[in-house]
Hints:
Number of strands of chain A: 21
Strand content of chain B: 25-35%
Number of domains of chain A: 5
Distance between the termini of chain A: 59 Å
Structural class of chain A: alpha+beta
Helix content of chain B: 25-40%
Radius of gyration of chain A: 34 Å
Oligomer: heterodimer
Low-confidence stretches of chain B: none
Amino acid sequence: MMDAQKNLYREEAYELLAVLEDALLELEQHPGNMEVVGKVFRAMHTIKGSGAMFGFDDIASFTHTIETVYDMIRNGRLQVGKDIISLTLKACDHIKTMLGTIQGEEKADEAKSHKLTEAFRKFLPQKEEETPGGMGKSLPEVASDRDAGEAGTTYRIRFKPHQDLFSNGTNPVPLLNELRGLGECSVICHLKGLPELQEMDPEGCYTGWDIILTTGSDANAIQDIFIFVEDTSDISIEPIGCILQDEDDLAYKKVGEILLERGDIREGDLEKALASQKKIGEVLVETGVVKRSQVASALMEQEQVRGTRKKHLAGDETSSIRVPALKLDALVNLAGELVTVQARLSEFSARENDPDLMGIAEDVEHLSAELRDIAMGIRMLPLGTTFAKFKRLVRDLSSELGKEIGFITEGEETELDKTVIDKLSDPLVHLIRNSIDHGIEQPDKRIASGKPVQGFIRLTAEHAGAHVLISITDDGAGLDTGLIRAKAVEKGLIAADATLTEREIHKLIFAPGFSTSTNVTSVSGRGVGMDVVRSSIESLGGAVEVISAPARGTTITLKLPLTLAIIDGLLISLADESFVIPLAAVVECVDLTGADISRGHGRHLIKVRDEIVPYIHLREVFDTRGKRPEREQVVITDLAGKRVGFVVDKVIGEHQTVIKNLGHLFKATNGVSGATILGDGSVALILDIHKLIQQAEVDDAA
Amino acid sequence: MGRLFFEDSTGDRVLTAAGKLTIQDASLLKDLLMDAYSSPKRLLVDLTNTESLDLACIQLLCSANRTFRRAGKPMGLCAVPAGGVLRSLEDVAIDPASCDAELKGHCLWVTGGGR
């Protein structure tokens, strides 16, 4: 049980660290944004509080000082600067290491914790060490504070300064602003104690306030705000609660009840007012029982509590639960199995020609399709978290290389299958590192070429049918076509006199071991990257495209399938075996006649719409026995702009393909990426056309 | 500190407040308001050049509005509050609903005193 809780804490902490890094980078751009400061504080606070709760005292202890620093920033007692942000980012890295060592049950680097803590302590005056909440025995309080915060408690605060408040130089406005900074806050001022002008002490305070505050902070934090006016004011802080049990609670209390609870009216006043059949607030004001401001204040409380409860209820409706990815995989697998069984049922019912059975088969078809879509939908995750990680990468690398780079992300809400997202991170790191290192020029070069000193990298995602397009654009120098060509000739990738378009030359950067960089930096230039990117993306059933213009920059676009669990396939046959070709790569199907074969003069080439297309004979690849049909068919595919045909006996048609792994035994099988079960229960292999083409090229060269 | 002075206008006394009005200006503000109270002329307060005003000054103007109205003497603002004055009122959370029943519809800050 404890292990499960520890895992839960670790997962939550990693998520919070991602939020934290994002907030810190935003804070670096907008140091005055108190909302972001609050976000940083809350994330640190939760990491600390939960850490203490689950027995991770080293993390709780480490984050304590950082939390204190951000508490001071939050309260306007310390200015946030690049030094604090950089230090906090280092602290985030250290917490990640500490979380990692929890997993390995090793001891974290205590010396590093100490060094970082000392660095944070330098920002604190001596006495701040005990705040907020202190350490050691006060840790359980932190946890309960967090609980209150998560629930979003609403407090009714009454603040009535004594008349002599101004005499010691106190201005109540900063106190009100501090309360406003704690959460959703409604304030109403009461001037009912205001005397006639003649009787007024111009330097006296006659105003009071009712404040309704919904906040994650506890009553102590609110009390702290009034610490310097406690002796010169009447202050009451009362939790009025906001936990919603059911929708009926939305009604909250009536205005009369609130006024009674506040002590503004007596039971008798309420009964009389209720008897008048008019709006209770109006009656109470008209009869002079209360001032208009008191009724307004009660209405404000009613409105805020109702609003908070509505939000809470809406939050409950959209709240999420944490499910292990393996369980989701199992669900998708089962949905796939159901699709397969449904296909068998449909085929059987059609064969039996029984109307009742056919009706049932149709219903099962609808339901299984719906279940499959929902199961697939659950695995879809927004790209936002992945994108957020790169902000830090751009910040750190650009500063390491002395470049100024702005990072823009768009389409973070675009969703992709979890498996695709997991495998996408490394290729994106390669591409962004390349843009930073090779794309964006040094500031002096940018100025010399009339560009702004700050370059930019834009990372975007958008849907395009059954695919998602992810683009990385920079406004850097663009690809050097001449240099790429020269390197390609030098490496023997192309002949010196080869005629290539600019686009074809740019594609050479994806060739294995290709790099034009003369300097190998810690960032890039080793020539192991772009080919890895290409093969990673292609292994996901995607494609990579590059567009570049000299001095204007480069855009690399990754085209990825929405999911890897179910694909649209083209079912084909070789003798009595069935195979599936991913439909996304299929351009068209043409017949292969005897005349076509003889025109090829022994070479596997076919002329399709005036274009010579090489083809691969799948019968030869899979060593298929039996007589070849007189008229074969060629499935023309397009992979990253390269057209290749696959000769098959027969094209059967489109097929929704539930992908099954082949298992370890068939791991080395070339040219096959998986299998699927057909409606009649037979197995069809899914072709890995990228691997088949690669193998054919190798065979040709040999 | 702000600047407070009277400007003569046909039939009205115009109390002009410029700059940042703080508690240090409160005594003078009260004296000038009392002076206007004893005059039969209508009082107009010009806050168009006021950058901000603190609670002490806000209280005085609210009290003056109430006192003038109870005595049947006309008082108002030259213009509905804007800019820094509006921000100062928001800071202290002045709400028209806070006004007494007798001032309903005559809140100095919303209607300019209903002049």
